[in-house]
């Protein structure tokens, strides 16, 4: 089986400081990978390198494209990379307002990716937008409201709908539940888990919340100071942490 | 007349603008940056159009200046006087007699010929600007032909108003490549953008020039189920009775009385001179006004 994403010795430096270094892993179709670590450990840098938002200083990111097989996205041309960015890839930002157009209605936000791949039939775009709003539990009568009129949780769900409408195969998520209260978090996680299973999505989830990865991720990568210190199946890493930092991380979770 | 170089700008500046125009003509619809000069009028009064006109004018040219279709509004009068003073060129109000036409907000009703140049004043040349504030990003979108966002604007129109409510500055795609803002002309004029004359667009404050060569394909963007429709007020001109021209609505008394009349004053006067009379019109007399 070919991996969907093959990451080889990715490194990114900010001057003399390390963003992330020597990261390698394979992600297979349908697999959800969690990346955990404290703030400043290089999680987001790594994710941005993988999603093409940052250019890594070393290494290769190979993606299994629909037409050309495994292609290195670091060296492919910018139009191709941006095309991937709006078709096969999706990126869910921590802050919904980074990923949404706040002055465009919810329907327009969901429809944008469709129109970017040349959908030119208004009624069809609208039908799909309503369908997707329904899937993320937003009422159809909110379709013409702007995201500014939505609550934080709704904005985040709208961002997910906007990203998944073109049927991507790989979703990058940067702290998708950050800044939401716990009951809203729980519903969002439930929704994400359902969508991931139903659409057989592969995903890379960056978070510092161990509960999120426990629920969503099949595999886990623990990062510290830009390096990967431990990898393994989620339950294995969380229940039997080997590295001193992972042990600290797991024991730091507050029990209610 | 000796106080000014011909057409106000110095020769080096005119050469720079001509080079920009040639590049614009070579890449239809592409916004070419140029070193816009300070002009003796405020931004928004047509500094871009004036610079382009200055660069293309020759002493043998006949200039016509229109503002919202009319030859006798402030903007048109002052720009016409500016070139009379600084270039000493002949001026006219007749579309057919002009070799260079500077315009704001309208294309003349009468079809232009191959030996005519029309210069548009453009406030904001970037059609994607209101959706994407970053110039770096919009330039990248143009270069990679990523125009999905333009349809988001039209989508928003339909979802809010039930129809494409954009009535002016209606985005067009030029020769199947660049999406372009045709300057704030009414969408009624969009079909006329495919013409025999040379079309030059100058944005002074934004420092961009772009162009459409003669007989270039210009397609107004739309949806399959909401096709582009040029619209005008559903009336005939009150003065000349024309059904086919773009109309202004004028309030004529304090009891809500209103008259629709051609926005293109030359077109209207020509028709009245030929004997056409509308519901509110009187037979044409020279110097009646």
What would you note in describing this structure?
The complex is a heterodimer of chains A (256) and B (289). Chain A has 256 residues and is α/β, with parallel strands linked by helices. Chain A is 38% helix and 26% strand. Chain A has ten helices and ten strands. Chain A is globular, with a radius of gyration of 18 Å. Chain B has helices spanning 11-26, 47-56, 74-86, 135-143, 148-161, 265-273, and strands at residues 32-33, 62-67, 90-91, 100-104, 117-121, 172-174, 178-180, 198-203, 208-212, 218-220, 247-251, 258-262. In chain B, the strands form three sheets. In chain B, strands 1-9-8-5-4-2-3 form a seven-stranded mixed beta sheet. Chain B has a three-stranded antiparallel beta sheet with strand order 7-6-10, with no helix packed on it. In chain B, strands 11-12 form a two-stranded antiparallel sheet. The interface between A and B is medium-sized, with 25 and 16 residues.
Number of helices of chain B: 6
Our count of helices of chain A gives 10
* Whole-number mean pLDDT of chain A: 91
| Share of β-strand residues of chain A | 25-35%
Q: Based on DSSP secondary structure assignment, what is the total number of beta strands of chain B?
A: 12
What's the pLDDT, averaged over the residues of chain B?
93
Strand ordering within the main sheet of chain A = 6-7-8-3-9-10
Which ranges of chain A are low-confidence, i.e. pLDDT below 50, for 5 or more consecutive residues?
A: none
Distance between the termini of chain A: 42 Å
Q: Pairing-aware structural class of the strands and helices of chain A?
A: alpha/beta
Tell me which protein chains meet in the greatest interface and how many residues each side has.
Answer: A-B, 25 and 16 residues
Number of strands of chain A: 10
Structural class of chain B: alpha/beta
Distance between the termini of chain B: 31 Å
Largest sheet composition of chain A = 6 strands, mixed
Order of helices and strands of chain B: HEHEHEEEHHEEEEEEEH
Shape of chain B: globular
Strand order of the largest sheet of chain B: 1-9-8-5-4-2-3
User: What's the Cα radius of gyration of chain B?
Assistant: 19 Å
User: SSE order of chain A in H/E notation?
Assistant: EEEHEEHEHHHHEHEHEEHH
Rg of chain A from C-alpha positions? 18 Å
């Amino acid at each position: 089986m070919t991996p969907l994403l093959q990451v080889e010795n990715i490194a990114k430096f900010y001057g003399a400081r390390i963003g992330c270094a020597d990261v390698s892993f394979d992600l297979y179709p349908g697999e959800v990978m969690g990346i955990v670590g404290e703030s400043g450990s290089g999680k987001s840098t790594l994710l941005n390198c993988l999603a093409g938002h940052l250019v890594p200083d070393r290494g290769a990111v190979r993606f299994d494209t629909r037409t050309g097989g495994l292609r290195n996205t670091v060296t492919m041309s910018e139009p191709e990379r941006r095309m991937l960015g709006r078709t096969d890839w999706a990126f869910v930002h921590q802050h919904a307002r980074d990923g949404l157009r706040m002055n465009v209605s919810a329907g327009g936000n969901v429809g944008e990716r469709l129109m970017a791949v040349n959908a030119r039939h208004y009624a069809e775009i609208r039908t799909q937008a309503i369908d997707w709003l329904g899937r993320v539990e937003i009422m159809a009568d909110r379709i013409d409201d702007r995201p500014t009129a939505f609550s934080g949780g709704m904005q985040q769900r709208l961002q997910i709908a906007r990203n998944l409408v073109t049927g991507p195969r790989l979703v990058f998520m940067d702290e998708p539940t950050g800044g939401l209260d716990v009951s809203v978090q729980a519903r969002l996680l439930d929704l994400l888990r359902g969508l991931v299973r139903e659409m057989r999505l592969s995903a890379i989830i960056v978070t510092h919340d161990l509960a999120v990865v426990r629920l969503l991720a099949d595999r886990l990568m623990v990062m510290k100071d830009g390096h990967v210190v431990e990898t393994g199946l989620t339950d294995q890493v969380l229940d039997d942490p080997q590295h001193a930092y992972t042990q600290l991380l797991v024991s730091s979770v507050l029990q209610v | 007349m000796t106080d000014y170089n011909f057409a106000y700008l110095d020769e080096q500046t005119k050469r720079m603008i001509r080079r920009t125009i040639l590049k614009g003509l070579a890449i239809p619809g592409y916004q070419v940056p140029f070193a816009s000069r300070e002009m003796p009028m405020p931004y928004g009064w047509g500094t871009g159009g004036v610079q382009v006109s200055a660069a293309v004018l020759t002493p043998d040219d006949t200039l016509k200046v229109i503002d919202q279709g009319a030859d006798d509004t402030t903007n048109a009068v002052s720009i016409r006087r500016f070139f009379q003073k600084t270039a000493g060129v002949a001026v006219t109000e007749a579309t057919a007699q002009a070799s260079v036409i500077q315009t704001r907000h309208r294309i003349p009703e009468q079809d232009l010929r191959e030996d005519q140049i029309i210069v548009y004043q453009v406030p904001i040349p970037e059609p994607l600007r209101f959706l994407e504030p970053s110039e770096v990003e919009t330039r990248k979108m143009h270069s990679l032909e990523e125009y999905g966002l333009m349809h988001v604007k039209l989508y928003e129109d339909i979802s809010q108003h039930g129809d494409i409510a954009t009535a002016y500055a209606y985005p067009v795609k030029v020769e199947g490549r660049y999406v372009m803002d045709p300057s704030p002309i009414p969408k009624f004029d969009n079909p006329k953008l495919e013409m025999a004359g040379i079309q030059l667009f100058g944005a002074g404050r934004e420092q961009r020039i772009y162009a459409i060569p003669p007989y270039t394909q210009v397609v107004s963007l739309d949806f399959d189920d909401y096709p582009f429709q040029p619209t005008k007020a559903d009336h005939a001109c009150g003065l000349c009775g024309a059904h086919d021209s773009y109309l202004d609505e004028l309030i004529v008394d304090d009891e809500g009385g209103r008259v629709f009349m051609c926005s293109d004053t030359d077109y209207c006067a020509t028709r009245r001179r030929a004997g056409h009379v509308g519901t509110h019109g009187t037979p044409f007399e020279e110097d009646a006004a």
